[in-house]
Amino acid sequence: MITAIVFVKADTARIPEVAEAIAALDGVSEVYSTTGQIDLIALVRVRNHDDIAAVVADRLNKVPGVVDTETHIAFRAYSQHDLESAFSIGLD
C-alpha cells in the first residue's frame, strides 16, 4: 500500500464542500481541515504509484474549489503501536 499526503489549498468560502468532495473520491482515506497556510490535508492510499496520479491529478485537482495541491509520498509509517513495540523491554 502506498500512502500520499496531499496538502490542499482551497477557496476559503468552500472549504467544507471541497473537503467532502475530496473525501468521497476513491483512494482518499481521510481528509483533515487544518490551520495555517494549508486548508486541508488528504491521505491517499493506493496500490501503486500510477494510482496516485489518477487520484490526485485526474480527480482531486479537478474538484471545484481546489486552488492548489502539494503531494508527498510516504516512505515508511511509524504508528504509535510500532514505536511501543520497538522500545518494549518485554514487560507486560
UniProtKB/TrEMBL annotation:
Molecular function GO labels: sequence-specific DNA binding
Matches recorded under SUPFAM superfamilies: Dimeric alpha+beta barrel (SSF54909)
Top-level taxon of the source organism: Bacteria
Occurrences of domain Transcription regulator AsnC/Lrp ligand binding (ranges): 6-76
InterPro entries to which the protein is assigned, alphabetical: Dimeric_a/b-barrel, Tscrpt_reg_AsnC/Lrp_C
GO CC annotations on file: cytosol
One record GO biological process: response to amino acid
Transmembrane segments annotated in the record for this chain: none
Protein name: AsnC family protein
Organism in which the protein naturally occurs: Nocardioides terrae
